[in-house]
Design brief:
It comes from Streptomyces axinellae. It holds the Pfam family DUF397. This is DUF397 domain-containing protein. The radius of gyration is 14 Å and the shape is globular. The longest helix has 12 residues. The chain is 14% helix and 15% strand. A three-stranded antiparallel sheet has the order 1-2-3. The protein is an alpha+beta fold.
């Protein structure tokens, strides 16, 4: 199960540091020196994202459904426009 941190109320935009330091993962960081998005699965199934270069900055909190929908779309190429150059 994921980590829930020491906070009673987990909300979108909360300081990521309030979720603790354990449980953050960055499997897609590759060779960019570790500058990437980190993810944590929360105890209630939601997913928290933060910027690895700002670990105390805001955490974006997504429901399981929201994150599954995003991942499915990304796998199908729906988010490819984010990578396209102008």
């Amino acid at each position: 199960m994921g980590h829930t941190g020491h906070t009673r109320h987990i909300y979108n935009g909360m300081p990521a540091k309030d979720l603790g330091t354990e449980g953050w993962q960055k499997p897609w960081s590759g060779t960019n020196g570790g500058s990437c998005v980190e993810a944590m699965k929360l105890g209630d199934g939601r997913v928290a994202l933060r910027q690895s270069t700002d670990p105390e900055g805001p955490a974006l909190i997504y429901t399981t459904h929201e994150f599954e929908t995003f991942l499915r779309g990304a796998k199908q190429g729906v988010a490819d426009f984010l990578l396209a150059s102008d």
